[in-house]
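Section 5.1 Outputs to date
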Amino acid sequence: MNEQITGGLFKRMILHGAAAITAQKQAINDLNVFPVPDGDTGTNMSMTIAAAVTELKKSEPAALDQAVSITASALLRGARGNSGVILSLLFRGLSKGLKGHETAGAAAFAAAMQEGVSSAYKAVMKPAEGTVLTVSRLAAKRAAECALEETDFEKVLEAAIQEGYEALAATTDMNPVLKKAGVVDAGGKGYLLILEGMLAELRGEPMPEAAEEEPQKAKADFEVFSGEEITFAFDTVFIVRKNDPNVDLEPFRAYLNSIGDSLVIGEDDEAFKVHVHTNIPGSALTEGQKYGTLELAKIENMRTQYEDVAAGKKAQSVDDLEMEEGESAGNPEGGHVVAPPEKKYGFLSVCAGDGLAAVFQDLGVDGVVSGGQTMNPSTESILEGVDQIPAETVFVLPNNGNIIMAAQQCAALTEKNVVVIPSKTVPQGITAMMNVDFEAPDPETLAGTMTEALSGVTTAQITYAARDSDFDGFDIKEGDYLALEEGKLFGTDGSLRSLLEKLAADAASRGASFVSLYFGEDVKEEDAQEAGCLFESACPGAEVMVLSGGQPVYYYIISME
C-alpha cells in the first residue's frame, strides 16, 4: 500500500512508464489510420518521455516536486509531434500542481493530474474530443473522485486507468475516421500505457523489455560510390577542458582546416568540442592538447564503415561519446549558447533534404532544422536553432502540421521573441519566405503578411503506403503510390506516372500559373524532368520548375500557385 509518493518513487514510476510505452510503441504506431509513412504517435511519445528518463537518471531527487519538475522540463524540451507536446503539457500542469510538495498523497496527486489536463486544454487552440485530451480528462476526474474515499495511491491510479480505458474505447465513436477503421485514439492509448507502467512500479512489477527494433534499410545506394571518394577518412570528435577560459581558438581552427574538412568547434567558458574529418586524427588531438586537457574522444573510420555497409553489414561505430554534435561542448546537460541580436528579424525553417534546405537559405532563412514527416524534431532541437540565430525576433517555419505545437513551445524557453508561422507544408513555407518584407516595421505586420501568403499555394505530395488501409473510399495496399493534396488523400495507384498525370490535370483545373516540383532522394533527375513535362503539357501557360529537394519518403512535393 502506497499512501505517499516521494521523489525517488516518482522517478522510478516515470522510468517504468517510459519502458512500457517503448515496448509497445509500434502497436501504437499501427493505430494511426492514415497510411502515410511518418513519425508516428508511438515513436513521438516514446522519444518524448525518453528525454525525461535521460534527465532523471542524472539525479536522485528526494523531493517529489523536484522529480516532477525535472520530468516536466525534459518533456517540454524533448517533445516531438503534437502527441509529444500534449504529453509534456499534462506533466507541466502536474508539476505546477505539486509545487512545494516533498511528498504527496493520492488526493494531492489526483488534483495535480487535473491541473495537467487544464494546462493541456488551454494550450491546444482547438481542443478536439475523442483524443488523448478526452482520455486524460476523464481519467483525472475519476482519480479525484476516488481519492475522496481512498488513500491508497495504487487503487486511485488503478481507477483512473480503468476510466481512461473506457474513455479510450469511446474515442472510436467520437471520431468518424477512427470509427471507420475500427481503432481507438493512438495518443490516448500511449498515455494510458505510461500510467500503467507507473502503476506497475507501485506494485513492484518488473519493467518490460523493449522490443528489438527492426534494422532500418539504408537510404543511400552505396554501389554508386567508391571508398576512394572519401577524401578524409576519420570522423574525429573530442572534448578538451580549457586551461584558460579566454583562450583564442582561431589558430587551432585554422590548423584543423588545413588538415581536414567538415569542421565544427563549439565552446563555452570551460571546454570546447571539436568535430572534424581528417586523415591524421592523432595530430588533431595533439594540437588540441596545447589548449587544455583532453577529456573524451571518438574516432571512426568512414572508409571501413562504407565497406561494411556496401557489403550489407552493420557499420562499426563508437557509442561511448554520449553528447550529440548538436550539443554545446563541455555541457552534458545539453545547453547551448544564445547568439546576441545583430539584426531585427531572423528566420528558421524545418525541412528534410539538402535541396530544400538550399532553397530556404537562398530565400533568406538563417538556419535549417532537419526534420519533417519522417522524424519530427524535438522542441529542444528547434529551440537550439532559434537561439543560434543572431536576431531579436525569430520567425519559425515548421512546414508540417505535426511540428507546429513543438515550435510554439519555444517561446517560453528563450529570451528571443519567437513567432511561429503555421506553415503545414514545405511549399507554404517557401511561399511565406518569398513574401517577406525584411524592412517590415514590426513583427506583427510581418507575421500577418507571411501567414496570409500561406493560403495562396496548393501543395501536393506523392509518397507510398506504409500499410494496407481502407481510407476515405480508397482501398489502399501497402507499397501503393499515394498522392496527397492539402493533406487529404487525392488518389492512389500502382503507377507513379498515372498519379502525376492526375495531379497535372488538377493543376490545370485550378488555373495554376506557377508549378514547382521538388523531387526526392529516390527519384532520378531525368524522371523528374519527364514529370515536369507532364505539367507543362497540361498547363501550357504556367511556369514549371523542376528542382532537387533531396527529401526522404516523398517522391515529389509539388507547389501550385
